[in-house]
Amino acid sequence: MSDIVIKEVKSKKDQKQFIMLPWSLYKGDPFWVPPLISDMKATLNPAKNALLNLGPYAYFLAFRDGKPVGRLGVGADDRLNAAKNRREGYFTLFESIGDYSVAKALFDKALSWLAERGYDAVTGPQSPSNGDDYRGLLVKGFGSQPVLMDSYNPPFYADYLEKYGFAKQFDRLAFYYDLRSNVTERFERGVQYAMKRYAFHCDQLDKKNIDCALKDVKQIIDEAHPEWPDMIPPSWEEIHAEADKLVQLAVPELVWFARTNEANRPIGFVMAMPDYNQVLKKMNGRLFPTGAIKYIWYKRRITGARSFIMFVSPDYQKKGVSGALYMHALKAALAKGYVYGEGGTIHEFNDKMVRDAIGAGGDHYKTYRVYIKQLTQEQSDPAANE
């Protein structure tokens, strides 16, 4: 432990080392997808990341012989804590060389930091921006490139967390779809029957009326949002912040709303995105000088998509709405020449959505685990960790 130094990220140099560390850790890994450096800078900036304004946060780097060998972000969402009546922190963006002592030193520092501020538990990995990215540790489905916004990590990360004392809180499941075989005539007949019986229809996103679409999204989420341990309905600020990031990348044919025939009331929506990881793989994290050209060139050659959010109003659940949304998104993806889709990630205890995903032809092929650990009194005493 004596040769490992933990430093809090403060300067621009620290931030650059924090962001760039994965490039050295995953060098030669054929499946790792470099994130956009500009996106990571925005994630670490409280002026551009709403989560960082909801509670305290810090980022830490581990050094050995002056070289960065690990990183960890930590913080708390006090808005979520107030809604759930708890004092819970989160960790995010964990990376380490293959040496448990590095991971231990990082978690010792980060958990002490949380305990000193009155938090009594920590969960993670959580998204660094309250989005769907970096949420959960990959524990099943190694050996393939991650789809857009999915986590990716070596298998030994799970060993390190469990050795440190983290336990499974819950799993998030991802489902693979072969688009060439999933939209069967039987499936389509079932959807058409449900739409007629329960008097609803589906429309794709109109990007010219994005404000109206966001209002519908907010209404549906507020009505449908379940009592899950890690989520509450997003605020308007969070919805707009997420929309600002996604609207330029969204493809209208992959975003669908279900509405009642009589009153045109929004009752459900699904959002899928092209698997831009196929493009990011070519860009190596940079837009300039050639990244923008590569983006324009390779995005036309994307062969898959990811569906990453779906909500249905409670009074229209079990009435075929989710199946209809799945079908329209799958058919649109197939029409664009995509051959695969991913649906996820779905909480394992969301039985209805899991059944719907399987019913639509999904194959559970990857699992992302969220861990939890109670903080001890000793962790609030920095001397206990020396």
Can you offer a commentary on this structure?
- The chain is of the alpha+beta class and 386 residues long.
- The chain has two domains: 4-173 and 370-385, Gcn5-related N-acetyltransferase (GNAT) (Aminopeptidase); 177-365, 3-Layer(aba) Sandwich (Aminopeptidase), CATH 3.40.630.30.
- Helices cover 35% and strands 26% of the residues.
- It is built from 13 helices and 13 strands.
- The chain has helices spanning 12-25, 37-43, 78-84, 100-116, 156-164, 179-182, 185-197, 210-224, 236-246, 277-283, 291-299, 321-335, 351-359, and strands at residues 4-8, 57-64, 67-75, 88-96, 121-124, 137-140, 167-178, 200-204, 255-260, 266-274, 304-312, 340-347, 363-374.
- Strands 1, 2, 3, 4, 5, 6, 7, 8, 9, 10, 11, 12 and 13 form a 13-stranded mixed beta sheet that branches.
- Helix 12 (321-335) links the parallel strand 11 (304-312) and strand 12.
- Helix 10 runs antiparallel to helix 11.
- The longest helix has 17 residues, at 100-116.
- It is globular.
- The N and C termini lie close together (9 Å).
